[in-house]
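Researcher: Let's try something more involved. This one mixes different molecule types, so please make sure each is placed in the same coordinate frame as the others.
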Amino acid sequence: MEIGIIGAGTMGSGIAQVAAQNGHQVILVDSMENALSKSKSELQFSLKRLEEKGRITEQQSSEIQNNIIYSTEITSLRNSKLVIEAIIEKLEVKHQLLYELESVVSDNCIIASNTSSIPIASLGSILSNSKRIIGIHFFNPAPVMPLVEIIPSVQTSSVVLEKSIQILKDWGKVVVVCKDTPGFIVNRVARPFYGEALRIYEEGKADFSTIDWAITEFGGFKMGPFTLMDYIGNDINYSVTESIFEAFYFDPRFKPSFTQRRHVEAGFYGRKSGRGYYDYSEGAIEVFPSKDEVLGKAIFERILVMLINEAIDAVFMQVATPEDIDLAMTKGVNYPKGLLKWADEMGLEKILNKLDELFHEYGEDRYRPNPLLRKMVREKRSFF
Ligand SMILES: NC(=O)c1ccc[n+]([C@@H]2O[C@H](COP(=O)([O-])OP(=O)(O)OC[C@H]3O[C@@H](n4cnc5c(N)ncnc54)[C@H](O)[C@@H]3O)[C@@H](O)[C@H]2O)c1
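Model: All components are placed in one shared frame. Result:
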């Protein structure tokens, strides 16, 4: 089966590699010739490294490279049975592209988008056969991260959904299905990891390195929130938070933080700009956390219950199943444990009490315990 990918940037190139590794003929299209040549040489480089590490043979490497055809012409996608677009995150540009694409491909071609924030329903609205639209959301880097979120919209047919799931499973991906709602699973459920950490800092309870220490030490996360935001880039992370806040009709649970905004305004993007919450310049003075165990545990617990409350809300609002939500957080963003499994282990009553305590203390809507949590405590139920 021939697969078309549009956009040869970070994501499109990675997705093309995944499809080519699985034996497909891949047509990778980009409007910029130099994006294609960069993509080609980067693939060569990363396959060479895999060869050196003994993960693939020289023959496999050349097969993968031979499976990809690079083109600036959208018309080269005429025989593709699945086309995944991964171009810039702008609705008008994606609409224009999908409109042109539909006139090129066959009637039974599935048209998918790798968008992180644009509703799939809105992308599908430009197609004359909108039953073929679907969200197929990979994580960066696509060849390494196992998770793929599949997002059927109100228009998507069940055949398109089933076929898409099967293709991604055949590619060895961990597939979760979620509703066409802002942030899908991962980008929604993960918000408190950053937001609550920023809030704790803003209240003067602890500095960045202490909060990072608390999360890695007591939670077993690979990175604390501030280290992670510096990796992702504060500009990117802030704009995701802002777009989710707006998309949720300004629900205070997702309110962005002034601290992060000021860091963005100052150009403190993180590693890529040499300065974020931490200083990455040569000779920078290393900062050390204050390793107060009581404080550290309290910080970790507050962030964890907020994450769990968000995961429970995703179940409550039928965004995805508890199994898929836990898979998404462990396979998409490497959480040490699924949040709902964690909730069961901690005890739902303890989580409810902690959230009630925060809610009474602050009187803010962001701390309201989810109704499903309350109900499950009343009925003495657990998730698994
Ligand atoms: N970067 C991530 O971590 C990440 C993760 C998941 C999803 N996404 C989503 O994937 C998509 C692509 O993101 P990216 O980071 O790979 O972007 P990118 O900027 O690295 O690449 C985009 C590519 O699209 C090309 N392009 C733009 N308009 C085009 C058009 N009309 N026709 C053909 N090619 C066109 C550009 O030349 C560029 O090469 C976005 O929708 C983004 O939201 C990104």
